[in-house]
Amino acid sequence: MPTTEANAELPVFDAEFVDDLYAKYREIRSETPVQRMVTPQGMQLWVITRYEDARNALTDPRLAKDFRRTGEIMDRMDRDGGIRRPFNSALNEQMLNLDPPDHTRLRKLVVKAFTARRVENLRPRVEQIAADLLDAMSEHDEVDLLDAFAFPLPIQVICELLGVDEERRDDFRQWTNTLLDASSAEATSQAGAAMAEYLVELIAAKRAEPADDLLTALIEATEDADRLSEGELVSMVFLLLVAGHETTVNLIGNGVLALLRNPEQWAALKADPELVAGAVEETLRFDGPVMHGTLRHTTEPVTIGEVTIPEGELVWVGLASANHDPDRFEAPESFDITRDAQGHLAFGHGIHFCLGAPLARMEGQIALRRLAERFPDLAPAAELDDVRWRFSTLIHGLKTLPVRLK
Ligand code: HEM
């Protein structure tokens, strides 16, 4: 049980940490690569910061995800009732929060519906949505790149993929913002409830009127006479909607920021648009958009190097830190779209490896390529040193990114 006194010695995962993420992680990685940290709510967790350790942790079954056990561990620490649960419990029952065999079962069903062909079939739509947004931007001299482009592109894609009505998309932005940022427990639970209610309606409508879309495919997906229950469908659609847009928004936002900060890389991309695949991989490595870390808990004591993490503790696998480990990536703090960034952990690793990676890569590549073609003179409209990051333990994204287009 953590005490305030014991916590005083430990690094705190707060807004200041997030604003200086890589330098803070560098310090921890070089001094005590596996160590305890404290969340702003006073909850202790262990952080794993080296690449090798993080990669191994992601395939170690003793580092588990089951949300019920995670909840119990949080309850044990939650002496003051101040710890914010990551999500509304009705939406927790999805594969990202479960271990085998539950995880295996759900993932199998979803993979049947969310196929490579379904993603590839979306390509012309993604191109069209990007082109329309860029057209709308060209009427202005300056825009917030997040509002005008990075946000609407992936949300439109994931909403079309699942069949969410156009009028509800702003609600979605609000709900997911509340759920992912460090909002109050009450706001989080209200947003979760509103979203769950809407998803139930959406699924009922789709059952009544099946279409050629992912949601219909999820409803109809079967495996050995098994299918998703109503509750599992709601949680799954929730996971896809949240994972499918907040992440890709920040892939685009963080990518453009890195390109603006490194004009020679922007010039290289404009000169050779084929470099865009490398630009996306390097963005994922250099400044990954989601989950600078991902949560696990120990089901038994786990020894990493010289440290033994006891059973029943929360563990944060530091994806962002791992991607900046100089033992794995040379000159990790330079952004180089021609480097081989393969092996980065931005999409995770092992059984939970991101199911949406092909879609995210496609969207990121189309976004950066078309932006470079359309606005080759893109420049920051404010001091880049002053950019502010959203404070969240789940996502790593900017609050705004003002740019000049001409
Ligand atoms: C899982 C990152 C986009 C759906 C994950 C995990 C990471 C991740 C790190 C594993 C977490 C863990 O091991 O705890 C990203 C990044 C994205 C992105 C960086 C964008 C650049 C997407 C998209 C979708 C998606 C577009 C869907 C439309 C999922 C799902 C899982 C997942 C369903 C859970 C897989 C499982 O538990 O087996 N993602 N994601 N992601 N992602 Fe993504």
From TrEMBL:
SUPFAM superfamilies: Cytochrome P450. Pfam families: p450 (PF00067). The keyword Iron-sulfur does not apply. Keywords: Heme, Iron, Metal-binding, Monooxygenase, Oxidoreductase. InterPro entries: Cyt_P450 (IPR001128), Cyt_P450_B (IPR002397), Cyt_P450_CS (IPR017972), Cyt_P450_sf (IPR036396). Gene3D superfamilies: Cytochrome P450. Signal peptide: none annotated. CDD domains: CYP107-like. The keyword Iron applies. Belongs to the cytochrome P450 family. This is Cytochrome P450. It comes from Saccharopolyspora halophila.
